[in-house]
């Protein structure tokens, strides 16, 4: 898909939206027209931006912390059979608990501020990053390891120069998933209890029947997520370069 | 090379309870090329991997003795059918990887020298993907030379190359790995006839030594004695175990 196709599908979508509103005569507080939403976006831009910054900060911090924890876990699992025996069942079990169900508890423990949202994002992205990178670390081509062994490689150097390098494309796939999941985590955290952020603003707009503002906020959230996805995609491509 | 030891490999191997090969004694003469020929699945590569100290998924009972009584650990270099160049490193970095993996000082000047010895001068900064199959295998040879080990274990390193490149590579390897103890595992009787001082066919029933021509390797592709030896080997391979 290129930019032209993207623009064409956006125009088609907006046209369909306008057509639905015009033909059905639906009330603006149920479904506002694209023009109303554009208006809301323009007049509330300062408000939306203020909240967008908060969400963006939560998402980026969550991504960084979650990725680092995921990477460290994967390395630990890949290098220690004891860690594999103990941690893996816990990790798999932890995935059986819906993270969203923990959101109220996290708010209770860590408060209404950014902390609980960052933790929420971290919890959502930690597993995909850890699991993708671990898979990559365990799938090093055996020929590479044979060569390293005959060369007298130390385990840590083999890990650093070969296994981790060979696993970079897998880490890239994990990060791609993380970039899509992280905003979901942060926004759900904001829904459960917050005083700032796009999720909070959406709830607020919904409660006051400012559906146009709700839509405007939703569009900004979607754009942020797409931008984040594109940036991480560039990073993932760099990681997979030459593989 | 001074001090390239002879190796005596004695033993039997089982793969999940079933015998892979019975008691065999393989003599690998120091400073010379020994070729191990045989059909697929007979255990040639397993013998090579056991000598290299690599995991072989078999239960091996036996011993490997070198003529100087020293262990072979860290005295062997290994070349496989695949060049095993790391795609994310340049050719120069690939040639230096051994030192990096051991935490030794990297001698770039010597690596550059090895790269020009295999005829790849000017390609130092290229990634493996920018090199042809033959060039990559030359790169692997430069990396093997860089390791400077007395014992070289070659597991069909030329089999994936086209005929011309293969003949060129065989000559280059024979020239550069002279005076080292070389064990070459191969399917190809022509290769064994050209390159080896000693050739042994490995069969389910044991090892069969082949009489080699008097001329030293590398022998000419069209040399009558070489062709006759090649024919003899192929015949033995086709006949199967006696």
From TrEMBL, chain A:
Keyword set for this entry? Cell membrane, Membrane, Transmembrane, Transmembrane helix, Transport
Subcellular location per UniProt equals:
Cell membrane
Q: Which organism is it from?
A: Paramylibacter ulvae
Output this protein's name: ABC transporter permease
Entries under Pfam families matching the protein? BPD_transp_1 (PF00528)
Question: Which Gene3D superfamilies does this UniProt record tie to the protein?
Answer: MetI-like
Task: Kindly give the PROSITE patterns that the UniProt entry links to this protein.
Answer: ABC_TM1
Membrane topology note: Multi-pass membrane protein
Carries keyword Transport? yes
Q: Which family does it belong to?
A: Belongs to the binding-protein-dependent transport system permease family.
The membrane spanning regions, by residue number, are 7-31, 51-78, 90-112, 118-137, 173-193, 213-236
Q: Pinpoint the ABC transmembrane type-1 domain residues.
A: 52-236
- Record's SUPFAM superfamilies? MetI-like (SSF161098)
């Amino acid at each position: 898909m290129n930019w032209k196709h993207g623009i064409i599908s956006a125009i088609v979508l907006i046209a369909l939206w306008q057509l639905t509103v015009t033909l059905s005569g639906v009330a603006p507080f149920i479904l506002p027209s694209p023009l109303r939403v554009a208006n809301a976006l323009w007049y509330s831009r300062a408000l939306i931006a203020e909240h967008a910054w908060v969400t963006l900060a939560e998402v980026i911090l969550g991504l960084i912390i979650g990725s680092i924890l995921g990477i460290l876990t994967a390395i630990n699992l890949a290098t220690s059979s004891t860690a594999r025996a103990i941690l893996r069942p816990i990790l798999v079990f932890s995935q059986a608990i819906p993270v969203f169900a923990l959101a109220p508890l996290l708010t209770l423990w860590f408060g209404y501020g950014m902390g609980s949202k960052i933790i929420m994002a971290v919890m959502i992205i930690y597993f995909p990053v850890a699991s993708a990178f671990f898979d990559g670390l365990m799938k090093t081509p055996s020929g590479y390891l044979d060569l390293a062994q005959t060369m007298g490689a130390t385990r840590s150097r083999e890990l650093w120069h070969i296994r981790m390098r060979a696993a970079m494309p897998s880490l890239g796939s994990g990060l791609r998933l993380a970039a899509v999941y992280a905003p979901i985590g942060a926004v759900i955290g904001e829904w459960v209890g917050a005083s700032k952020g796009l999720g909070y603003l959406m709830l607020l707009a919904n409660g006051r029947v400012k559906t146009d503002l709700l839509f405007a906020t939703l569009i900004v959230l979607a754009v942020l997520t797409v931008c984040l996805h594109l940036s991480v995609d560039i990073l993932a491509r760099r990681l997979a370069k030459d593989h | 090379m001074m001090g390239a030891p002879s190796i005596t490999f004695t033993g039997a191997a089982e793969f999940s309870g079933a015998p892979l090969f019975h008691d065999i004694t393989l003599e690998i003469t120091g400073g010379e090329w020994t070729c191990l020929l045989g059909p697929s699945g007979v255990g040639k590569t397993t013998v090579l991997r056991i000598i290299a100290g690599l995991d072989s998924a078999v239960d091996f009972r036996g011993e490997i003795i070198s003529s100087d009584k020293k262990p072979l650990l860290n005295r062997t270099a290994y070349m496989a059918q695949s060049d095993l160049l790391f795609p994310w490193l340049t050719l120069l970095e690939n040639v230096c990887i051994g030192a990096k993996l051991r935490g030794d000082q990297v001698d770039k000047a010597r690596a550059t020298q090895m790269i020009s010895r295999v005829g790849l001068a000017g390609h130092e900064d290229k990634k493996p993907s920018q090199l042809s199959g033959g060039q990559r295998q030359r790169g692997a040879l430069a990396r093997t030379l860089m390791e400077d080990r007395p014992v070289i274990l070659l597991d069909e390193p030329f089999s994936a190359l086209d005929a011309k490149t293969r003949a060129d590579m065989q000559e280059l390897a024979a020239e550069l790995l002279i005076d080292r103890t070389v064990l070459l595992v191969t399917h190809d009787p022509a290769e064994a006839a050209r390159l080896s001082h000693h050739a042994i066919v490995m069969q389910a029933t044991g090892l069969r030594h082949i009489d080699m021509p008097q001329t030293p390797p590398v022998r000419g592709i069209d040399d009558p004695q070489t062709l006759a030896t090649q024919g003899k080997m192929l015949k033995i391979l086709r006949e199967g175990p006696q």
